[in-house]
Amino acid sequence: MQLGIRFHDTEKIAFEDRVKKVHDLGFKCAHIALSKIEDIPSAPDALTPGYGKYIRKVFDKNEVDIAVLGCYLNLADPDEERLKVIKYKYEASIRFASYIGAGMVGTETGAPNSEYKSCSECRSDEALESFIAGLEEVVGYAEKFGVVVAIEPVAKHIVWNADRARKVLDRIASPNLKIIFDPVNLLDETNFKDREQIFAHTMDVLGPDIVMLHLKDYVNQDGKLKSVGCGLGEMDYESILRYIKSEKPFIHATLENTTPENHEKCRDTILDIYNKV
Questions:
Q1: What are phi and psi of 208, to 5 degrees?
Q2: Residue 264, pLDDT score
Q3: Residue 94 backbone dihedrals phi, psi, to 5 degrees
Q4: Rounded to a whole number, what is the largest CA-CA distance in the chain?
């Protein structure tokens, strides 16, 4: 496992110094979301090959992989004009991922409204069909550039469990469509007590297509799950890390929901478990 961090969770210093800091902290890779990094461009039309080469050189110099370029927009937006803009941004991200050498473009799975708001309709067949239609077009574009698009199932989004994700993979049937496994994102207040069964089923159903791991923790706060850094909540990562160690050597795995004050603690928590399983 190559452990990394979500870049926008790190200390807000100059971009090149920030990449160096990621390396100095012992991280091997980073999850990049351009729009969340204050001092570098993120507009689609700014994502030129030259800019991409600059980003790639900075990361290569510091021996940090760009594990994923995040583009977390709603491919099930019912507003046709908004959806055109969203697809344009995905296409720009796919091209840019090829320039910077990113492992994949990562995305979640939307909601059937323009607010990207969780609702009961997320679990409808109509919402799933809408998401598949949007995603299929994006994946087709990614195939032209040799870029992987990886979707991340989330309990409150349209693709809310492993079986739903399997349907998406099988329907689109592209080698350029894969899975980001974020165990905590599969949990909500209704199912977290069954987490081990959920994780085992997910690894069984989606295992061959899992290409990245997101690592965070959760606390049950007033009947709602709140995401926190690894080791700061109720999560047990043993079964997942045992699977990763056995079946996914050298996979990129990035910490989420850390802060500059706790990411070393979160890093050490995960590495300790990984080394023991």
A1: -60, -25
A2: 97
A3: -65, -45
A4: 51
Residue 115: both structure tokens together: 């607010």
Q: Are the CB atoms for 67 and 29 separated by under 8 Å?
A: yes
Please, is 77 exposed, middle or buried when counting C-beta atoms within 10 Å of its C-beta (0-12, 13-18, 19+)? buried
pLDDT at 222: 87
Distance CA 149, CA 136 (A): 10
| CA gap 85, 112 in Å, rounded | 16
Low-confidence ranges of the chain (pLDDT < 70): none
Write the DSSP assignment of 51-93 as a string of letters: HHHHHHHHHHHTT-EEEEEE----TT-S-HHHHHHHHHHHHHH
- Report the alpha-carbon distance of residue 98 to residue 94 in Å, rounded: 7
* Phi, psi torsion values for 65, nearest 5 degrees: -75, 145
CA dist list (Å): 79 to 83, 87, 127, 157: 6, 12, 13, 18
| The two three-digit tokens of residue 16, written as one number | 């090149």
